[in-house]
Specification:
Layout lengths: L1 H19 L5 E3 L10 E2 L9 E5 L5 E9 L2 E9 L2 E5 L11 E5 L8 E11 L2 E10 L5 E4 L2 H8 E7 L5 E7 L2 E7 L17 E7 L2 E10 L4 E13 L4 E11 L3
Parallel strand pairs: 9-14, 10-17
Antiparallel strand pairs: 1-2, 3-4, 4-5, 5-6, 7-8, 8-9, 9-10, 11-12, 12-13, 14-15, 15-16, 16-17
Length: 251
C-alpha cells in the first residue's frame, strides 16, 4: 500500500510540473486587435527579426518584420521583453529611426518613443512620432501638425509693390508681422502659408518638440518657423500643442 501511495505522489508531481511549463507567452490582447498585434513576452533569442535600432540602455528595441529593397513594411517593438507588431513603414532615407525610453506623460513611468524619418530631399525633411505605454504597448496619440495648423495657426500672405511679402501670423492670441524680401518677384499663388515640407520632431527636457516651417511657392521657400512644445492631456490621453513660438527665417 505504501508503495502505491509513493507511486501516485510521483505521478502527481510529474503531471503538475508539465502543466506549469505549458503557460502561454501572451500577456494581453487589446480589444479588437488581430492576433498579430497582441503583446507577447517571447525570449529574445526566439526572434529572427532584424534589429533596426535600440534606446541607449536597450530597454526599447525596434525590429524589422518585413523588409523589401531596404524599405521596412512592418515592425516589432520590444519594451523590456514585451513585444508588439505595428504596420509602421520605414523608408530608405539613409537616416535610422531614433529610439528613446523616457517619461513624457509626467506620471513617473517611462514611455517608448520612436522617431521615424518619412521623407528626405531638397527642401524636404519629414518625420513621424510614435509614443507607447511601456506596460501594454498601446500607442498614445500625438496631435498632428495638420490639426495644429487648422485649430491654432492663422496666417496671411500679401505681396507688396516692391516685391516683398507682408506676412501676418496669429496663434494663441498673439499676432506677429514681418516682411520677407526676394531678389525678384516671387512666383506664387497663395494668400496663406503652406506647411508639410519640413516636419521635424525631437525630445528636449522630457517634452516633445516640433519644428514646423511655413512656406510660400511651389519650390518651396520657407519664410518663418513655428517651434511647438507639446504637453500631455491625461483626460484625452493625448499629447497636444501647448506652446507655439514663431520667428522669421532670414534669407
Amino acid at each position: 500500500m505504501k508503495k502505491q501511495i509513493v507511486v501516485l505522489m510521483l505521478l502527481s508531481a510529474v503531471l503538475l510540473s508539465g502543466c506549469g511549463s505549458d503557460k502561454s507567452g501572451i500577456v494581453t490582447q487589446g480589444v479588437g486587435e488581430s492576433p498579430s498585434k497582441q503583446v507577447t513576452t517571447q525570449p529574445e533569442q526566439e526572434t529572427n527579426a532584424k534589429l533596426i535600432e535600440a534606446s541607449e540602455n536597450k530597454e526599447v528595441k525596434l525590429y524589422a518584420v518585413n523588409e523589401t529593397d531596404g524599405e521596412v513594411q512592418g515592425v516589432t517593438v520590444d519594451v523590456n521583453g514585451k513585444r508588439k507588431e505595428f504596420d509602421w513603414k520605414i523608408a530608405d532615407t539613409g537616416t535610422k529611426p531614433q529610439v528613446f525610453y523616457t517619461n513624457l506623460t509626467g506620471d513617473g513611468k517611462e514611455e517608448a518613443v520612436i522617431l521615424i524619418q518619412t521623407g528626405r530631399g531638397t527642401e524636404l525633411d519629414t518625420y513621424d512620432i510614435h509614443v507607447l505605454h511601456a506596460e501594454d504597448l498601446t500607442e498614445i496619440k500625438v496631435q498632428s501638425y495638420e490639426d495644429i495648423v487648422t485649430d491654432q495657426i492663422e496666417s496671411h500672405v500679401a505681396k507688396s509693390d516692391d516685391g516683398t511679402l507682408a506676412i501676418t501670423v496669429k496663434t494663441q492670441g498673439k499676432e506677429s508681422k514681418f516682411d520677407y524680401g526676394f531678389d525678384s518677384d516671387p512666383d506664387y499663388n497663395q494668400d496663406e502659408l503652406a506647411f508639410g515640407g519640413v516636419v521635424i520632431y525631437s525630445l528636449k527636457n522630457q517634452k516633445i518638440k516640433l519644428s514646423l516651417p511655413g512656406s510660400v511657392g511651389v519650390s518651396p521657400t520657407y519664410v518663418c518657423e513655428f517651434n511647438i512644445t507639446y504637453k500631455f492631456d491625461s483626460a484625452k490621453n493625448e499629447f497636444v500643442a501647448d506652446q507655439i513660438e514663431v520667428k522669421p527665417i532670414e534669407k
